[in-house]
Amino acid sequence: MIKLIVFDFDGTLVDSKKASYKNHSSIMKKLKIKAISRQKYLSLYGTPHEKMIKTLYPKIHFHKYIETYKNNFDETASSLFPKTKETLDYLSKKYNLAILTTKEKWKLERMIDYLKMRKYFGFIQTPADSEYAKPDPRAFDDILDHFNMKKSETIFIGDLELDRIAARQAKIKFIGIYGDFQKPVKKISSISELKKML
């Protein structure tokens, strides 16, 4: 019996890919660095941001980049996917809800407050909160401990292959949403489908 639902954030609850690349391009322009293509940027989307930027721009002065990024980040540019808030409201009355994301803590905090989502989640984990990040299966450990839940009582919802791999390695049930996956998965096209599925 499922008692805990863990959600990825970007691309699962929040439609942020387009806004993320737009933000990135704007920062690169301010730093007078030519931005890589949208396709290349999105190929690493979901990777912890520092690792992603250092991979895409090996010679970048990362501290200068992140300072500029923080000063110019626009949390209002992203929006919730349709029916997200009403579904979270429904699910939060029946299940424990958590977020497991590779998004930086400062950025997530600003977005989750702007979108008024904090009240739905009993636990939120970013890379700053744990030494383990997806796809490492140990990324789920603190969440399970917080709610005193077993893996068999938990399900993870995500949009990336990285999410599927993390769940598989952790031996946690997985439902894919919106994204494409390298292996067959149970998949939904709207978060609202969870109300009938679980």
Backbone structural class: alpha/beta
Distance between the termini: 9 Å
Low-confidence stretches: none
Give the overall silhouette.
globular
Number of helices: 9
Q: Could you report the average pLDDT, rounded to the nearest whole number?
A: 93
Q: Rg to the nearest angstrom?
A: 17 Å
**CATH superfamily membership of the largest domain, which one?**
HAD superfamily/HAD-like
Question: Spatial order of the strands in the main sheet?
Answer: 5-4-1-6-7-8
Proportion of beta-strand residues: 5-15%
- The tally of beta strands, per DSSP, is 8
Q: Return the CATH class of the largest domain.
A: Alpha Beta
CATH fold type of the largest domain: Rossmann fold
What percent of residues adopt helix (DSSP H or I)? Answer: 25-40%
Number of domains: 2
Largest sheet: 6 strands, parallel
* Series of secondary-structure elements, N-terminal to C-terminal: EEHHHHEHEHEHEHEEH
Which second-level CATH architecture of the largest domain applies?
Answer: 3-Layer(aba) Sandwich
